[in-house]
Write a structure and sequence with these properties.
Helix 1 runs antiparallel to helix 2, helix 4 crosses helix 5 and helix 8 runs antiparallel to helix 9. This protein has 10 helices and 11 strands. The protein folds into 2 domains: about 160 residues, 2-Layer Sandwich (Ribosomal Protein S5, domain 2); about 130 residues, GHMP kinase, C-terminal domain (Alpha-Beta Plaits, 2-Layer Sandwich). Strands 1, 2, 4, 6 and 7 form a 5-stranded antiparallel beta sheet that branches. Strands 9-10-8-11 form a 4-stranded antiparallel beta sheet. Helices cover about 45% and strands about 20% of the residues. By secondary structure, the chain is of the alpha+beta class. A hairpin with a 7-residue loop joins strand 9 and strand 10.
Length: about 300
């Protein structure tokens, strides 16, 4: 048995901000993917995944019992398949901020949810919010509180625009210019990041008046502007706002940036060769970069591997 593929995602804009109602923009990233498979002789990571699915199944049963009417699953099939050696075969690196647990959640919902909302139907805002709520509850098994956005992105395989907590829509982004010099890229920090502790730090900081007003007056302001600029293809304005956003993150989100990247982060802001921002919750994993001249950025970031995810 081999199920359909579910892809990783990149939250281009909105990390942390969407917790506090900023705009956000999330896009599927097809380079990494996962699918449900079955093997009778499980070893290594496949065996670990199968064990994880057993625990996840138990969690889903509790979820269905506790949240009547939210979602239901064909547990008979799910338990049988898990007992027969089902696992999630995935190339999506864990702890890298690109939705490894989201793809798994999407795959399980797709295969085992009964009365599911399908990708083929007319996806009204209500349906998208319902899916996001279901996915949020499902994904909470993996890292505490989840917005449900990662699984939603993986399930739909479409860019998603978050206008606010209760207003999300699938959207289209400007088509790529493969010949263009500009790029959005991923930078590998070489270490994994845990979502829950990072979100915990953020929530603690939110108790401070100064931090709260910075989030509202600076972080969310620049995030929202970046989303608008990106969707409208306003490159000049986008890079102005990106510079501000990168600066705010360096000043106020230091714990989320691996220490060996503090200098590179600063260097980008000072030279304008590239701007860095968090990809997901930070603390490790990937860092997201934006540049108007990829060759320049590559030279400046010599020794680091840049994975281009979007060209313009």
């Amino acid at each position: 048995m081999k199920g359909p593929l579910f892809y990783s995602k990149i939250l281009l804009f909105g990390e942390y901000g969407i917790i506090k109602d900023s705009k956000g923009l999330s896009i599927p990233y097809n380079f990494f993917k996962g699918a449900l498979k079955t093997d009778e002789n499980l070893t290594g990571t496949a065996k670990d995944s199968n064990e994880g699915l057993k625990a996840f199944t138990t969690y889903l049963k509790e979820l269905v019992d506790n949240e009547q009417g939210l979602v239901s699953f064909d547990f008979e099939s799910l338990e049988r398949d898990v007992a027969n050696g089902m696992y999630f075969d995935s190339s999506i690196p864990q702890g890298y901020g690109i939705g490894s647990s989201g793809a798994l959640v999407a795959a399980i919902y797709d295969k085992y949810a009964t009365d599911k909302i399908t990708v083929l139907e007319n996806l009204t805002r209500e349906k998208l919010l319902k899916l996001k709520e279901i996915f949020g509850r499902m994904e909470s098994f993996f890292h505490g509180k989840s917005s449900g956005l990662d699984p939603l992105n993986s399930y739909l395989s479409l860019p998603i625009l978050i206008n606010s907590k209760d207003n999300i829509e699938s959207t289209s982004i400007p088509s790529q210019n493969k010949e263009g010099k500009g790029a959005v890229f991923l930078l590998d920090s070489g270490m994994t990041g845990e979502t829950a502790p990072m979100v915990q730090i953020f929530m603690e900081k939110m108790k401070q008046d100064g931090f709260r007003s910075m989030i509202k007056d600076e972080f969310i302001k620049h995030t929202d502007a970046c989303v608008e600029d990106f969707l409208n293809g306003n490159i000049k304005s986008l890079f102005g706002n990106l510079k501000q956003l990168s600066h705010v993150v360096l000043d106020h989100f230091k714990p989320m940036i691996p220490s060996k990247f503090h200098q590179l982060w600063k260097q980008g802001i000072e030279t304008n060769d590239y701007y860095l921002k968090l990809c997901g919750s930070g603390g490790g994993g990937y860092i997201l970069g934006f540049t108007q001249d990829l060759e320049k950025a590559k030279k400046a970031l010599h020794g680091h591997n840049l994975e281009v995810v979007y060209s313009f």
